[in-house]
Design brief:
The protein is built from 6 helices and 25 strands. It is of the alpha/beta class. Among the domains are: 93 residues, no CATH class; 31 residues, no CATH class; 86 residues, no CATH class. The strands form 7 sheets. Strands 1, 2, 3, 4, 5, 6 and 7 form a 7-stranded mixed beta sheet that branches. Strands 8-9-10-11-12-13 form a 6-stranded antiparallel beta sheet. A hairpin with a 2-residue loop joins strand 2 and strand 3. The radius of gyration is 60 Å and the shape is rod-shaped.
Length: 467
């Protein structure tokens, strides 16, 4: 047989049924080959070109008499310029719905897989929701389509899930805590800070840096959870040890029910934190209270406490704008019911001043139903002693003539300059009164003697007249 005739026969056979030459349904290498070439004006076939359909596998069905429809198909197109020695092609998976057959998934010539898109930009590019019931390994990229070529390695607008060592990340590692944990890195972009969450055995830690920071350097902070916060209703929380920086909260000694505040006297957990207080009191302090600064109240103040301890101790100044009552509801600026004690000097009056050596200074009038002055034991009764040297009235007269005041009595100048000493004046006056009485007693004796002598003289005169 002529070789040219045989070759021509083979070309005709391949044109009639190409699959008969390239398909093998059984054997050591069964395969189905769809072979595409372009025709020419001669018997020599032409190569395929870019965008040529290389073949279609179709699944069809009869839907009505004379109506055959394609339900699904797989197609492949040549991509990029076709060059000698290479053929680049994709694969498109198609299914049909009520609107007809549509492209559903594509595998590009470079291996990118697109679902819902014919132009995938990533190894797996889906348009729409994605769900998996198994494990996911890799990196998730969040894209708001700010750039069509935004790849995962740009770091912006991405999230990373990784397993890391705490020591590598600089997360604080308390004693007894496992060093492994999961790290979630978030780079939302748009001017927002980048965040990292570390999920460790002891809870969740967080840190942040500026957008697109080349390296993480922010300080880690622990997020408090219900395991880190324990408390009872109406108690103000406090940071619990150990320190120096505590990452947990617990009960304090301040009770606040929204209307009343109680400080101190809170029983330990798990007892109910319900201290005793008067609902009329906004603030109640259970126990000793020390105030090292100023205290100001615009209303009445009542202090009740034990007599064996200081009910109220103020180390510095205390200012009361309203009335102050001690042992009584006050009706005056200072209202005291009971005994009072002042260990120091007291000045009374708008311009009163503390006088040196005097416990009480009063600038104004004093009224009293009774005043008792305690004097020294030397009351002037010594004047009546037999050895008392009583000045003769002639000496007293000479002293008064010269000094213009009685001996032992302060002068007018002294009283004007130094004031009047009530106790001293009372002593001096009593001394002078007793001396006057001694002079009167002596004078009365002299008068009595003169009266006796006068009576005797009258008797003698009468006798002489009667002779």
């Amino acid at each position: 047989m002529n070789k040219h005739f045989l070759y021509t026969l083979l070309l005709l056979a391949s044109a009639i049924s190409p699959t008969l030459l390239f398909s093998q349904g059984a054997g050591t290498k069964p395969e189905l080959v769809l072979y595409r070439y372009n025709s020419s004006g001669s018997f020599s076939p032409l190569p395929v070109v870019q965008s040529d359909l290389l073949g279609t596998l179709a699944w069809r069905g009869l839907v009505s008499y004379g109506d055959i429809r394609t339900g699904a198909s797989i197609q492949s197109f040549a991509t990029d310029p076709v060059l000698p020695g290479q053929l680049q092609a994709n694969m498109i998976f198609r299914t049909s719905d009520a609107g007809g057959i549509k492209n559903r998934m594509i595998i590009t010539e470079t291996g990118l897989v697109g679902i819902g898109t014919d132009n995938p930009a990533f190894d797996l590019h889906t348009v729409g929701n994605t769900h998996t019931t198994g494990r996911f390994h890799g990196r998730i990229h969040f894209d708001f389509n700010s750039a069509a070529n935004d790849a995962p390695n740009t770091y912006t607008n991405e999230a990373y899930f990784e397993r890391k060592l705490r020591g590598t990340l600089g997360v604080p590692t308390p004693a007894g805590v496992n060093n492994f944990g999961g790290i979630l890195s978030l780079a939302p972009g748009g001017g927002a800070h980048d965040h990292q969450l570390f999920f460790g055995q002891d809870g969740i830690w967080n840190r942040r840096d500026t957008e697109n920071s080349p390296a993480w350097s922010g300080a880690w902070e622990k997020l408090l959870s219900s395991a880190d916060i324990a408390g009872r209703p109406n108690l103000v929380a406090r940071f619990r040890p150990p320190g120096p920086l505590s990452s947990s909260l617990g009960d304090g000694q301040i009770f606040d029910n929204g209307a009343n505040v109680v400080i101190g006297g809170i029983p330990a957990a798990p007892a109910v934190a319900a201290p005793a207080f008067d609902p009329a009191d906004v603030l109640t302090v259970q126990g000793r209270t020390q105030l090292n600064g100023n205290v100001r109240t615009s209303g009445n103040a009542t202090v009740d406490g034990s007599a064996s301890a200081n009910s109220l101790s103020v180390a510095t100044n205390a200012t009361v704008s309203g009335n102050l009552g001690i042992g009584i509801v006050p009706t005056h600026k200072l209202h005291l019911a009971g005994d009072g004690y002042i260990n120091g000097r007291l000045a009374i009056g708008p311009t009163a001043h503390y006088a040196t050596g005097y416990a009480l200074s009063v600038n104004g009038k004093i009224i009293s139903d009774e005043v008792r002055v305690r004097l020294e034991p030397m009351w002037p009764d010594y004047v009546f002693e037999e050895n008392y040297s009583l000045k003769p009235l002639t000496e007293v007269a000479a002293f008064v003539q010269e000094n213009k005041h009685l001996p032992g009595v302060p002068s007018a100048k002294t009283v004007a300059e130094e004031g009047l000493d009530l106790a001293g004046m009372q002593h001096a006056q009593m001394e002078k009164i007793e001396e006057v009485f001694l002079h009167l007693i002596a004078l009365e004796k002299q008068v009595a003697a003169l009266q006796v002598e006068n009576a005797a003289l009258k008797t003698k005169v009468n006798q002489l007249e009667n002779r």
